[in-house]
Fold Beta-xylanase.
Amino acid sequence: MKSNASLGKNAEETGHYLGASVRWDPLTENEKYESLLVEEFSSVTVENEMKMDAAHPAPEEYNFQKADEIVQAAEQNNMKVRGHPLVWGEALPEWVYETVVDEQSARKVLKDHVQTMAGHYRERVNEWDVVNEAWNDDGSYRETIWLEHIGPEYIPLAFEWAREAAPEAKLYYNDYGNEMTNEKTEAMFAALKRWKDEGVPIDGIGMQTHIDAADPRFSKEKMQKNLRRWGAEGFETAVTELDVKLQNLDASREERLEKQADIYADVTSACMEEPSCKGLTVWGVGDTESWVTEQEAASGEPLLFDSSWKAKPAYERIKRTFIFNQML
């Protein structure tokens, strides 16, 4: 069964969204990028332009121009907007390391940043990744300037500050590797559940879901187990940075693309079948703009559209998964 509707429309008909992360440069310079984004997706995540080094380049200076233009483009096309991220230990401007010297200065800088960003987009961003990647793979807290000077409490504080500035937005914790059960997931679950039980406004859990097609650890069943566990504790969930890289898979290109399609379908199906999961975001529109292509290997080909902007087998598999779930 085929559908002429876009992926985003197919997703909406199941009560979900299907989004893509967006960069300012190709959005404003590449007509094919813009048209595919608008035609195929129903949600936008601002990939880089809301990170602290881009949006807050000096202590008393904010630069919203590029992020504003992405948000405006989404609004003009009736697309949902996800902000990313308010708090992260990376992508920090140099002035932060010069200014933050103790707990008082850390709290001041972080609160100002969180509330200025969330406040600026108060009525315009539907969901925020409030805190990004706060745990190491072994379950310990990741060493960041915020942990160093505030301690783990910077995490619930960030959510409380964000809620004050954007009371209607959904507030998410976002991380990688949490689509599977491991030491990181266990530590994350214990802390975030405790804080939520104490009244901290943590609405949702973002599962980035960056998958290596050669990694045998991923399975739909493991992912569903984690989605279900978070949902049972009252958290929304979402797949927030989905891509499936191929460069480590020893197979023909045709076989690799079919494996990629299988994984995309499994992730989509896992989300569709768990009530807590509200939608999926693919981490980029096409392979040319992917972080995998830029940082790891051109042969990674992790996204739904190739370097010529042609749909890959994963595109049709996701569409079929949405259509199947409409019929249930």
About this structure: The CA atoms of residues 132 and 174 lie 5 Å apart. The chain has one domain: 7-326.
